[in-house]
Amino acid sequence: MDSAGKGKYEVSWEQVCWHCNTADFSFDCTDELTPLQGLIGQDRALRAIRFGLEVDRPGYNLFVTGLTGTGKASAIKRHLQAIIDERKAQGVQFPVYDWCYVYNFGDPDRPRMLRLPPGHGRLLRRGLDELLKTLREELPKLFSSEEYTSRRREMEEKGRASYQSVLQGLEREARAGGFGLQFSQMGVNLFPLKEDGGPMSPEEFMKLGEGKRHDIEEKRGKLLQRVQETMERLRAIEKDTQDKVSALGRDVGDLRLSDLFHRFVSDFGGLPEVTGYLDVLREYTLDNLNLFTTSQSSDGAQPPATPVQGGPQVFTAAQRSPIMPFEVNVLVDTSGSQAAPIVIESNPTWGNLFGRIERRAVMGAYFSDHTMLRAGSIHQANGGYLVLNVRDLLMNPGVWEGLKRAIRDKEVSLEDPAVQFGLIAPQGLRPQSIPWNAKVIVTGDEGLYRLFSTYDREDFWEMFKVKAEFDSQIDLTPESVDGYCAFICGVCQAERLLHCDRSGVARVVEHSARLVADQTKLSTRFGQIQELLIEADYWARKGASPLITGAYVKKALDEKVYRLNLVEEKLRRLTSEGTLMVDVSGEVVGQVNGLVVYDMGDFTFGRPSRITARTFAGRQGVINIEREAQLSGRIHDKGVLILSGYLGWKFAQDKPLSLSASLSFEQSYEGVEGDSASSAELYAILSSLSELPIKQSIAVTGSVNQKGEIQPIGGANQKVEGFFDLCRIVDLTGDQGVVIPHQNVKNLMLRDDVVKAVQEGRFHIYAVKSVDEGIEVLTGVPAGERQPDGSYPQETVNYLVDKRLEEMAKSLQGFYSEMVGRGAG
Q1: What is the DSSP secondary structure assignment for residue 2, as one 8-state letter?
Q2: Is 451 part of any domain?
Q3: Residue 523 CB coordination number (10 Å)
Q4: N- to C-terminal Cα distance for the chain?
Q5: How far apart, in Å, are the Cα atoms of 665 and each of 114, 212, 599, 731?
């Protein structure tokens, strides 16, 4: 086939890349534009987000999918704020509260929760601080006053007088019976007296007659019983005196506390939970007045300290800090907030999300109280919106299950994370749970969404009923280009970059189309566009340019490639040196240059790879050497199996397909995946069967189906540029080119140097629809169409292949017939 025949498949240079026309711009520099407000071309996702946020029903939480850098986070924040502003303008009241923890007098290890209107938590804490200060100032003065001390002294003197009277009566009774009394810390000692009134010694007692001693012991027993009765009466007098003094202290303190607490309680009269807590706090203060005094009365007496009923445990719990019951832990402070909170948690560990219980070391042990409870993001978002990244959630054990439990139970508890993992946690607090209601927005990629939908289906679908999917590309329209220009303006202003002129904007928009490999689409991964502008700004400033021009955008792209393409250059050098054997000129039977793409994570590139086929008589069909060596992936295996179907359908309608063909990626030492080389493998087989050589100056990519139709592939730009780079280094003769599927023409966004080479006729791109068109380009021989009698025109590729397959079938038939004949003989 001559160049004219081959030209009917050739792609013109205008088709190998889309160029943004700067004449369509209505500006000379982006500083003339208004920064973009909103997103470009994400109507579907934005409608889903608004729907999910506005439906205030259980389970209507959002899972937002899309590639990184498509603007999910910014869109969510913007829509949340827009909805909040709209509702605020409509006079909607948001269910936002202060959440506080206070001391629980009944169970100190279970702090009590209080829900207060916005700002009231801070008022309660400040008020109790002032109340405590007042108590410490006024109670010592109250109990050191002359009136109080006089009344207390009078009560105590009456008690002492009664005590002495009873004691003196006991002494008189004992002396009348011949006994004396001695009081000590060990108790009361009763001893006999001599006739002169002195104490009788044990020796003198033993010298008495037995009858005398017996009478003394009998009297002593009766007196001991009398002493016991008297001591009980003395204790009753002491208790009565103490009770009267305590009652006096309570009466005096009650008057003052009633006045102080009444003024304080009046500020929270409409909050029963607060007033109930303050009532108990007042009783605690009244029962522990000595904790709030720092001075003593003039006679050395102190105010009474009668424990509250059932309250030794309360007192013991407060010993570490006697004023602990007055301390208010404002867990969530919404002071000044009139709208629902928006909380974005970027590091959702258990403590950051669900809060934590801190501990303090005291005398080698750890203690905690309600003042050491710390809020997490989930508490801060109560009544509003919580935004999380699902990958971050999964990286922290137990967090996903904890989040689902909070959504399901509509409450959140502060607890040790060890409890969640079934471990034995140190004994600590069990704070009262907080009612919780917030809209949860989780972001992630499509793969994770499918993973949850498969393995956590019941809970996931019940709790995340709304899916909002951000597309990674949008249609290339005048409106989307205008939006891109406004976006570039916004980035330049926000990042304080140099503004772009027309050529700079055009180059950025063209790169956006290259990112999605489509002449009719633009990328929505704006994070990558922002990175490009930052790097172009660097090179523009380096060149002392006042604006970012197209040349500096290209410079930024080239420099990024140079930073990342070390592996590509090494492979290219090995190929040009002949270490990796690839021919870019001449003709070879059964050999074709396939094109593969290497994905290095942050950089992808294409390079040619020699594919060879050897055919011979047999019935093994197509043998994939990569598969036999366990170097082939499932998709590649499928592509090779399709070849047998095509060959059988094409050439074995009137005869058996008696063929054995081995296929190999030469010098391939890693796994091969994908079916984009299946057409190249088929061309190699057809060449081997027809013995027509294939032009090594033309590389091939494209998959094939059983009907012989060429199907589109990915990475077309990288594959074309990879072969062009090798040809340029070895020898760019003007005959080289690449065969691609015709559907991939719209995906071409080739580099400037490749476009220029195509324009000048030094490199060629061929677009084919079928195997027949492709083999015609590669061999220069027409493929040949099947004639009515089932044959193919002579000297065409299909004729030669069909002829060779017929010869193989006959040779096998003759061989087996001869073998059968020998066996019968």
Answers
A1: -
A2: no
A3: 23
A4: 53
A5: 72, 130, 18, 24
Residue indicated by tokens 């969640």: 420
Write down the pLDDT at residue 70: 60
- Note the pLDDT of residue 69: 64
CB atoms within 10 A of CB 269: 9
Q: Which of 275, 387, 403, 388 is nearest to 340 (CA)?
A: 387
3-state secondary structure 496-526: CCCCEEHHHHHHHHHHHHHHCCCCCEEECCH
Residues 191, 310: one domain?
A: yes
Nearby residues of 816 by Cβ (< 8 Å), 6 or more positions away: none
Domain count, the chain: 4
DSSP code of residue 676: T
Looking at residue 546, what is its pLDDT?
A: 95
Q: Could you tell me where the DSSP H helices lie in 595-742?
A: 625-628, 634-651, 678-690, 716-730
Q: How far apart are CA 223 and CA 174, in angstroms?
A: 7
Q: Which of 520, 538, 564 is the last residue of a domain?
A: 564
Q: Output the six-digit token pair for 812.
A: 């096998």
Q: What is the CATH number of the domain that holds 759?
A: 3.30.230.10
Euclidean distance between CA atoms 371 and 366, whole angstroms: 14
With H, G, I as helix, E, B as strand and everything else as coil, classify residue 569: helix
Q: Is residue 391 part of a domain?
A: yes
3-state secondary structure of 265: helix
pLDDT for 406 equals 94
pLDDT value, residue 304: 40
My answer on whether 773 and 665 are in the same domain is yes
Of 284, 305, 325, the residue at which a domain comes to its end is: 325
715: left (phi over 0), alpha (psi -120 to 50) or beta: left
| CA separation for the pair 54, 50 (Å, rounded) | 6
Other beta carbons within 10 angstroms of residue 509's beta carbon come to 23
Residues 157 and 109 in one domain: no
Measured CA to CA, the distance from residue 178 to residue 164 in angstroms comes to: 21
What was the pLDDT predicted at 422? 60
Q: Read off the tokens for 778.
A: 């590669």
Backbone angles phi, psi at 191, to 5 degrees: -130, 150
Angle between helices 678-690 and 771-779 (to 10 degrees): 60
Spatial distance between the Cα atoms of 111 and 369, rounded to a whole number of angstroms: 8
Average pLDDT, 10 consecutive residues per value, the chain (825 residues): 65 94 93 87 87 89 81 76 81 84 90 92 91 84 81 85 83 78 71 76 76 78 80 84 80 80 79 89 84 51 38 38 87 84 91 88 76 93 92 91 93 79 64 93 91 90 92 91 94 94 96 94 91 96 95 96 92 90 93 92 90 90 87 88 91 87 88 89 94 96 94 95 93 93 95 95 96 95 90 92 90 73 61
Cβ proximity of 2 and 503 under 8 Å = no
**Angle 517-520-523 from CA coordinates, rounded to 5°:** 55
For residue 297, is it within any domain? Answer: yes
Distance CA 525, CA 169 (A): 103
Whether 302 and 431 map to the same domain: the answer is no
Quote the pTM value. Answer: 0.77
- Domain-embedded: residue 52: no
Q: Do both 521 and 618 map to the same domain?
A: no
> For position 390, which CATH number holds?
3.40.50.300
| CB proximity list for 387: less than 8 A, separation 6 or greater | 73, 76, 77, 342, 343, 344, 345, 441, 442, 443
* Segment holding 252, helix H or strand E: helix 210-265
Do 354 and 407 lie in a common domain?
yes
**CA dist., res. 740 & res. 768, Å (int):** 6
Taking the CA atoms of the chain, what radius of gyration do you get in angstroms? 47
Domain that includes residue 239, residue range: 121-325
Residues 343 and 320 in one domain: no
Let me know whether 307 and 362 are in one domain.
Answer: no
Cα separation, 531 vs 546, whole angstroms: 19
User: 3-class DSSP state for residue 598?
Assistant: strand
